[in-house]
Structure formats: structure tokens, C-alpha cells
């Protein structure tokens, strides 16, 4: 496929640097690596000419092209389908989840909703397969008119390319919405041509001489835009160009360029105008539909000839416009009645069975006024869009269906559907606009409840939980006339929001929300759905008590470990499930739930869920003392966050790992963000509690007990679910060491009640250790040993090492130095091995006080691997194949092989069998 020339035969001028960058881009792909480049600039600036240059530079490679067209921007995956259509025979060779996703996205098969990131992985696999035969360059022009789903998939692919012999070159106008999607990719911003090059373009394009003073004005007013310069040579007379006649006061530039094209178009015969209007909205890759519509309107076969003569069109068969602005000018300049006539002809010309969605859209555009029949057809098309994962398309179809709907209640339901679709598509502004269009039709409790639920979802999506009105949600959710599933979902969301917000909850309190949830009729199915189990667990925990909640919490955690869904409404199970497991001190359940959710998220390409899971796995690895694995999880979470458009993390979620590592400045900076931004400004009190817990750990490691007590003490008054329980043993230690025994005893009493009710080894271990801190000398030694015994049966290596440290300190103070050395050395070895610098130093100082220096211990070797290499190495060491690693990390098998080769060189090994031994820390 060859990129159309948009500037006729005028040679490329003034783009030496850009051409060199593109030549290097092609050379990189030719060498076996991958490359991405985004060209950003205004209309006519020369983006397409540079794509032409790229096609020439990659003439010996496989080149695939796709051009975004405005009429298709609402049709999900339309552009991606055009890009991959020559290679659709490869779909059957994809791994099953990818095959199903791509086939579903293209409407080739029915099944589960296609996740766009799994579609992205499938696209990456297809392109990598093509590149195995010959390096591949994909050229994407007018990307600002790509459908939203295709743009997201191409951005996904661009960020996963590494060693695949694939190049992706994207040309786009400076559109904030799309440039956000492409944020972080290598970009060249195209400005106007330099003065000399701009004058050369004028000279080459003009039919005669161009006077110097005329050239100066034209270059200045066009700001060196080559298309504007070329079009001016056709707009102005030879006499004006030569300086013999004055130039018009206003030149047809920038925003007036479209009007300039429209003036030229309107000089064409009516039949040609009608054909151009058809071509402006017809499928760009289906000339047969265009000509069928033309025949329905009685247009002759020679209708395109005048447009070809005038250079408006470049090809008679495909009716390709010379510039996309001409396409826009043709459509926007047509009379409404004429546009409706053309849409009606296209709707009739399109095969109902082959392309029902495009036909429905044209039918809607051909309709004036209200028409329930057309609205219903649009709604049916929207359901097909949902099945393909095209939520932007779903929102557009339902919005237009609502506009055509006579019945107020039915119109409201369709607007609600459009609102929800906009949220899923990541566009809360459009969602709020659609919801604001609901002015009547809220005649039933169900519709009123849905409206409140959507308002809450929009507020939550905005990242500020304080804007979610829990009181209003609660009032609506407790209406007995609201259907049970909707009521339960709203109660669950209200409880979740209140748990996250704590003291920031608007209009009510967490306790009131929990009591209302308990009073509401529950779901008494056997077994109860996970959402009901979670609702019962948290409501009981808050409104009744911890002991009474324990059976409910256990049931909820068990259900989460087999739950087939990743969320309920706007609440991700991966987040709320971690709260339940932490509140139980259930490290095994916590990890089982996360690993189950990780498997689901990776299989389905559900990157938003995976993003949350990876942070949870990072926390679990931190508690287990495997700080390197925790960092790898956090690095992958940041990588996934980039893919889904989440801004780079500010380390607030990693604050606990930073605290354990003893990185004081970073811990305080991350905690400050959590406390001032996430807690105080955005209302996430739970993140404030998390930060205070991390600061407590930091101060305990540094031996600053009074400071540790000041951070831990608020947890006694505001016992946040999960974090409140984990804070208790820290509070006991800080208070005992700071000499505040009344506070220590108060915290121990709460810990005793809850840990006893929980009964997990983690809970019983930290309870025994906390009792030992306050126990008489005759009892403390046995309690420390009991604590170590319980904790040795858990994954909580950090807690076990702390127990050994406290036990050793206690023994040393009783002058039992020989026994103390055993525990202190074990603590020092453990802390050194995991990289807990401040706690290791605390153990070293204590050992020195016993008269012995700490034995040096070899920790994990410094392997000098990048985060991606570390992840690949770890999976390979576990026995995963290249294909399995590629699927888990959303990369290609060739990139895995590339990383493994680098890993082998860095580690000076030659086989995967040696990886496990090399990655394992040296033994004592």
C-alpha cells in the first residue's frame, strides 16, 4: 500500500533532520530491533510526505499502511481491521484468548466481551509473526481520526515493541486527546518549513514568478505550512504572485483552509458534488458500497471526472481525496437535507447482514426527528459493539439512539447506558454530559437509583473519593422498591467508599452506612455471591464487631480465591479483597486471592485489574522479605500503568517497601504525598493510614521510638479496616520502647481480642510477641519463642526477623549474651539478606553490645538486571517457556529471547538451567 501524495508533485524540502530520523528508524527495524516514532503537527505541515519518505526508506521491508478517516472514528476497531485485513488468516494461529479477543473485536465470532488490551496483545502477536519473515514497518496516517479502540491498541503495541523487527510510524495532528494516548512515545513535533525551504516550495508550486516581497508575506502568514503555500499558488493569480497586483487582505490560511477547499468544490457539477458527499462518509475500503449508493441516487459513472481534473480526487476507482481537509469540507459544507439523502442511500446500499453496525449508523444519520424503530436498531448495534469491547462506539450508538427515542423512560435508559459506556471507555467528561441530559424519565425507583449510582461512579472516576455522596447513595439503596441486585450493588459501593474515605465520608458515617447495609434484605442464595459475602463481612466488622465479623471475612476471602469476576460495578475485587485478608492477618488467603486474580487478569488481558493485583503482590513480597521481587512487581505495575494511561506512580503505594529498606528521604517524601494529596485532598483516608504505618516501621528501624509512637497512635482512635489491625503490634512495640505503657496495654488488649478471634499463625505470632514486650521476665522468653514458632509457619519473614531481633534484645538486656547472639545473628542475617538496612543495623549494634561482631552474610547477588530482565529471568528460572513468558508480560517471544540472551551474557551463563542457581542468594 502506497501513501497518497497530498502535495502533488512538489518535492520534499526543509525536512533533512526529520528524514534522517526516519532513515534511522528504518535502519533500526532492518537490524532486528523495533522502533516507534510519532509525527505531530497541524494539517498540511507535511506529515504525509514524511510517511512517503518512510515508505521509500523501507522499500526493502514489508510495509503496511492505514489511514484514519473521520466517518469511521466512531466504529470500534474499524481502522485496526483495515490494517490487519490482509493477515486475518493468522488469527487461527493465535493462542486461544488472543484469538477469541481479536475475532470478537472484528465481529468474526461471538463470545466474551473483547478486552482491548488482549486485542492489543493479539495484534502484537500477529505483527510479530509477519515480521518473522521480513521486517515490518506500519505507517499510520491521520491518527487523530482513528477510532478510539484502534488508537489504544496501537499505543499498546508501540509500548511493547523491543526486539521484534517491527516499526510503527504514526502521523497525527496536535490533538490533546490522542497525544495523551500516545504520551511517552518518541515524538517529533513538526513546525513550519524554514524560510529558504518555504520559498523553494513556493517557487516549485507557482505557475510563474513569485516576487520576493510576496514570498515574504506568504511564508510569514502561512508560518511555513507547505500545504498552505501550495494552495495559495492556485488561489492567487499569476499577477498577484509576481507582485503586479495587490494581495487580498485575508489569505485562506489555517482555519480558513477548509473554506478554501469548499469554494473549489462548490464549482463542480451537482452530480460530482453528490458523489463527493457519498465518498466523504462511505467506507473507505469498499468502493462497491459507494457506487451502489451513487446508483441509488441516479449519479452517472463519469461523475468523478471533474473532481479528478481539478485535483480534488486522486483516483477514480477508490475516490481518494487529495487531502483529508477536502473530505471534511465536503461533508460540513453540505446542506442537512442533502446529507440525510446520502446517508439514506448508503444505509440502503450496505448489506444488512455483512455490516449491520455501519448500516444502523447511516440510518440514524438519515433520520430527522424521533423514530423508535431506528433507535431500536441503533441499540441492537450497540450491543454488538459491547461484545467487541468497543465502548466508545457503544456510547456513541446509545447516545444517538436516545436522541431518536420518543418515550422519556426508554430515552433515560439509553442515556444511562451511554453514560456507563463512556466511563468504561475512560471519558468521565462525556459521561457527565450524557447523565446531565437526563431531565425526565426518572419515574421509577430503579431509574432514580441508577442515576445516583452513575453520579457516584463519575465522582469516583475523577480520583476524589470525597465527591462521592455516600449519604445519597445510602438513601436510594435502602429503598425497598429498588431491585435487589441494584440495591446490593449500591450498598456494597457505599460501604466501600466509606471504608476508603473514613472521616471524609460525606453526609453520613461509615458506621451508619454499615448499619444500613445490615438492615437491608440480603441475598440468601446458597452459596451467596461474593459481593454479598463481602458486604456482610465489612458491615458486620464496622457495625457489630471484629469477632462477629471473622466468619464472614473468612467466607469472603475463600470466595475471592475462586471468584470468576475481577470486579463488581466500579469496585475491583482485587482491592477490597486485600482488605479482608489483611484484616484477618491471613497471609495465605491474601496471596491465594491475588494469584487467582492475577491469572484471570493475564488470561483476559484485563490490565486495570492487573495493575491493582501487582501492587498487592508487591506488598505480599515486601512482607515476605523478598524486596527484589516486590520491586519487580512495582516496576511491572508502573509499566502496566503506562499502557492504560495512568500517570507515573509517585511512590506513595510503595511507601512500605521504602520504609523496610530504610530509605528515609524517599519514605518521607512518598508518605507526604499519601497524606497530603491522597488523604487530605482526595479523601482516601485509608492511604493515609497506610503511610503512617510505613512511617512507624521506618522509625522503629531507626530506633526512634517516640517518633514511631506519634505515627502509630492515630491508628488506635481510627481503626481502619486492615491497616488498623496491622498497626497494633507496631503500636505496642513503639509505646513500650517509648515508655508509654498505658497506651501499650490498651493496644495489646485490642490486639488480644482480634488476634485470638482470627487465630491465624500471623495473628497469633504478633500477639505473642506483643505480649512478650509487656510480660514479666518469667514469661517473656516463652512468649518470644511461641511468637517465632507461629511466624515461622507463615510467609511473614519480616515479622519473624523482627521477633528474633526483639527476643535477642530482651536476652541481651538480661545479660544472657550467648543466647542473645543466636537470635541477633539470625535477625541480622535475615534483614541483611532481604535488604532491610535499618533493622540490620539495629541488629548489628545489639550484637556488638554482646561482644560479638555480626558475621558477614552474602545476600542476593547484584545482577545488574533491568526490571524487565529481572522479570524474564525469574519466570525462566521457574521453568516458563518463551511463549508463556511473553503472554504473562505482554511482550513477544522474540523480545523474551532478546532479553534472555542479554541476561545470559550479564550472568556469564549459557543455559536456563543455570538461572535458578544464579538468582538464588548464596547460603550461609
Write a brief caption for the model.
One of its GO terms (biological process) is regulation of DNA-templated transcription. Keywords: ATP-binding, Nucleotide-binding. 65% of the residues lie in helices and 3% in strands.
Number of helices: 48
Taken together, the total number of domains comes to 6
Strand order, biggest sheet? Answer: 2-3-4-1-5
User: Mind summarizing the main beta sheet?
Assistant: 5 strands, parallel
Strand content range: under 5%
The separation of the N and C termini measures 63 Å
The CATH topology label of the largest domain is Serine Threonine Protein Phosphatase 5, Tetratricopeptide repeat
CATH architecture of the largest domain: Alpha Horseshoe
Number of strands: 7
Q: Given the helix and strand composition, which structural class is it?
A: mainly alpha
Low-confidence stretches: 1-8
Backbone CA Rg: 33 Å
Integer average pLDDT: 87
Estimated helix fraction: 55-70%
- Which oligomerization state do the chains in this entry correspond to? single chain
In the CATH scheme, the class of the largest domain would be Mainly Alpha
